[in-house]
């Protein structure tokens, strides 16, 4: 449907929040921890899209491994979808490799699934669907 957010891996969420607050001229609208992913996140609304800062909360976090290997920077692109299950099935049928076979609860009240970068020109792609209460 649209680019939902850009995920940026950071070493220090507090310092990065201050930097991006200066850059965007506004405060983060949400900070939360996603225990299952060992990450703390902070979101900024930028026009119709968002920027998500991600800080590892443990050494086994994918973000910690990413920063160790590549340093801070863009980690993933997230696209909003209407029906994550049907989109996962469609993309798998098109030959994309899913990192997780079932969607899981992510940050910012979303169900999420990731496509392996090996199947998407080196870009980690996240599919996300709003969780309807």
Helix content: 10-25%
Q: Structural class, from helix and strand content?
A: alpha+beta
Terminal residue distance: 20 Å
Overall geometry = globular
| CATH-defined fold name | 2,3-Dihydroxybiphenyl 1,2-Dioxygenase, domain 1
Oligomeric form: single chain
GO biological process, one term: L-methylmalonyl-CoA metabolic process
Protein name: Methylmalonyl-CoA epimerase
Keywords: Metal-binding
GO molecular function: metal ion binding; methylmalonyl-CoA epimerase activity
Set down the secondary structure blueprint.
Layout: E1 2-9, H1 13-24, E2 30-34, E3 39-46, E4 49-56, H2 62-70, E5 73-80, H3 84-93, E6 104-105, E7 110-115, E8 125-130
Parallel strand pairs: 1-4, 5-8
Antiparallel strand pairs: 1-5, 2-3, 3-4, 6-7, 7-8
Give a verbal description of the structure.
This protein has 133 residues and is α+β, with helices and mostly antiparallel strands. It has a single domain, classed as 2,3-Dihydroxybiphenyl 1,2-Dioxygenase, domain 1, CATH 3.10.180. The protein is 23% helix and 38% strand. The protein is built from 3 helices and 8 strands; from the N terminus they run βαβββαβαβββ. The chain has an 8-stranded mixed β-sheet with strand order 2-3-4-1-5-8-7-6. Strand 2 (30-34) and strand 3 (39-46) form a beta hairpin. The model has no long low-confidence stretch (mean pLDDT 96).
